Amino acid sequence: MRLAFMGSPDFAVPALRALHAAGHEIAAVYAQPPRPAGRGQKDTPCPVHRAAMELGLPVRTPARVRRDEAEHAAFAALDLDVAVVAAYGLILPRPMLEAPRRGCLNIHASLLPRWRGAGPIQSAILAGDAETGITIMQMEEGLDTGPMLLREAVPIGPRATTPEIHDALAALGARLILRALAEDPPPVPQPEYGVTYAPKIAKEDGRLDWTQPAAALDRRIRALTPWPGCFFQNGAETIRVLAAEPAAGSGAPGTVLDAAPTIACGEGALRLLRLQRAGRAATDAEAFLRGYPLPAGTVLL
């Protein structure tokens, strides 16, 4: 099948590799443009771009496509059977959605209609969902509103993290898109009930609010690590929390209760397991406290 692949982050790479290995003719790979990264701030291709170069596939990196008629014409000229989209990062306009003979199929990292939008994995963990999954969806102009072709669930364990769920869903998405192309299942409209939205995650979302229940803060740390990362303030210093777990204890929210260290929350307490100061390496709590004590009674912000 002649197709275009449109994706940018690590999540999309297994699907690209699976489509290539299955023998599909990939006429073009679309990815976000290279951006400055690293200490030297050199323009760096995104993961899909790098994978496409390894596979010898042509790559296009338009900065925008929504109102670019020349880009619409170039896309139509590819004469595609289908386009596969996985976390591309740009909104496709109607001329591009309708150009391939079978339209554009999206690999979405949730069980639609739950968690439409940009941050479905993090949102599922933050909400305490028992499962998430992959939906292969026929794209239309609405935000993740198109009819569903395939849908498969993945459990979210009690200590699951975003990287673990991300990798499981990326692999599942690669398997399901191959099935969708081979089987051409009939589209099923999304139900009108159960719709939720997953907003784009921002850096400030990582701030720990000690007035919240410990269970909610635990989910936040598991959902937002490694990016944007969770943090609190001790005076003027920002300290990142990379791992924690709910613990017994109570007190004024933000108060250090013991040397574990355990921090009182709005409900219950949170034991910090792995921490990092700015410009320092991440360490387990015991090693961290040898160089940066947090005495009982300290109030964290």
Rg, please?
Answer: 22 Å
* Protein structure class: alpha/beta
Estimate the helix proportion, in percent: 25-40%
What is the β-strand count?
A: 17
CATH evolutionary superfamily of the largest domain: Formyl transferase, N-terminal domain
Instruction: Please mark out the parts with pLDDT under 50 across 5 or more consecutive residues, or reply none.
Output: none
Overall pLDDT confidence: 96
Largest sheet: 7 strands, mixed
Shape: elongated
CATH architecture of the largest domain: 3-Layer(aba) Sandwich
What is the CATH C level class of the largest domain, in words? Alpha Beta
> What is the first-to-last residue Cα distance?
56 Å
Strand order of the largest sheet: 5-2-1-6-7-9-10
Number of domains: 2
The proportion of residues in beta strands is 25-35%
Can you walk through the features of this model?
The chain has eight helices and 17 strands. It is of the alpha/beta class and 301 residues long. It has two domains: 2-197, Rossmann fold (3-Layer(aba) Sandwich), CATH 3.40.50; 203-291, Methionyl-tRNA Fmet Formyltransferase, Chain A, domain 2. A seven-stranded mixed β-sheet has the order 5-2-1-6-7-9-10. Strands 12, 13, 14, 15, 16 and 17 form a six-stranded antiparallel β-sheet that branches. It starts with a strand and ends in a 10-residue tail after the last helix. The mean pLDDT is 96.
